[in-house]
């Protein structure tokens, strides 16, 4: 079996563009991957093409050789664009291997130790602007079965919060806490936006709400600062979505930066995610993958979740664009807040190129600092999984 073509595919998905890849072989088997890197999608697609040129005629089963050689030869080693492109191709190679052998990818990673993974909801707050509206949306998310909710209550803040902004954020947290009672964990997203003293100030305010974690309280490249924040607040810290390999995670873990780590399969790769999870296990640190992107990344993350004992919570978008069901062929079930892990060969997902072509690339701006943060889903958003009692 040899690789004959590597084809990147971009698809508008409202707040971003999904970046898919198809790796095609001469046997008739193909694999799919995903490298959605918000606001850098065109760069990632081009990188997929460039990396793919060296794979034509190669064996798609040689996944470790691909990863090692490409990482070595990239020279700059670790940039988000290159690593994401590698991740998508590698994901597709795992898909091919599983399909060729007739087994789900988790069997190739040691076999599963669980049939389902607990999920937390993101995106449940679409269009909410007031504490009262966040509370209403939180109750709706509970009806879907979610038992953990994540959101960013900090508006368009950057580095600092004045007294009024902090009061609004805490009012929002209080409203959601009251709405869910003790029926859901609350996860507060910081999006890496604050300086150290502001993050500590916020963290201390959050202590009274029994918050499960404060995510990315400061910019993610400041490991020392992250550790300083963690030492000074009584709320657990989660971070790691913008760390792209096990080598940097080793430093991150050694420095005691977080209580939960959050690598993203579409930016580290499926095999690397497995290795990062194993590394974190040796520190007794839970892994909670960053997973706000598209259907292929979700499918790949589920395969790793099946076999990692320290996999704790999976990020899950509460709803998505209504076209997802046409763009992707996926079978997902959510039961009492748990997502069931599919048993189909490979990744258990496929994409529809004809449907993707109907939704060409559209530029999207970062929403974090212009007061449109909750504009995360269209008004006709749709649930893309079946909810089981």
Topology:
Elements: E1 3-12, E2 17-25, E3 30-34, H1 41-53, H2 63-73, H3 80-101, H4 105-108, E4 116-122, H5 131-143, E5 148-151, H6 163-180, E6 185-189, H7 196-206, E7 213-215, H8 223-232, E8 237-239, H9 246-254, E9 260-261, H10 265-268, H11 270-281, H12 295-305, E10 314-317, H13 324-327, E11 328-330, E12 333-335, E13 338-340, E14 349-351, H14 353-357, E15 386-388
Parallel strand pairs: 4-10, 5-6, 6-7, 7-8, 8-9, 12-15
Antiparallel strand pairs: 1-2, 2-3, 4-13, 11-14, 12-13
Helix pairs in contact: 1-3, 2-3, 5-6, 7-8, 9-11
Would you give an account of this structure?
- Helix content is 38%, strand content 17%.
- It has a five-stranded mixed sheet, with helices on one face. It has a five-stranded parallel sheet with strand order 5-6-7-8-9, with helices on one face. A three-stranded antiparallel sheet has the order 1-2-3.
- A hairpin with a 4-residue loop joins strand 1 (3-12) and strand 2 (17-25).
- The chain folds into two domains: 3-103, Enolase-like, domain 1 (2-Layer Sandwich); 107-388, TIM Barrel, CATH 3.20.20.120.
- Helix 2 runs antiparallel to helix 3 and helix 9 (246-254) packs parallel to helix 11 (270-281).
- It contains 14 helices and 15 strands.
- The termini are far apart.
User: How would a textbook summarize the main sheet?
Assistant: 5 strands, mixed
State mean pLDDT (0 to 100 scale).
Answer: 97
Low-confidence stretches: none
Rounded to an integer in angstroms, the radius of gyration calculated over CA atoms is 20 Å
* Percent in helix: 25-40%
- Whole-number count of domains: 2
What is the helix/strand order? EEEHHHHEHEHEHEHEHEHHHEHEEEEHE
List how many beta strands DSSP finds: 15
Question: Strand portion, in percent?
Answer: 15-25%
Per DSSP, the total helix count is: 14
Provide the CATH topology of the largest domain: TIM Barrel
What is the name of the CATH class of the largest domain? Alpha Beta
How are the strands ordered across the major sheet?
10-4-13-12-15
* N-to-C CA distance: 43 Å
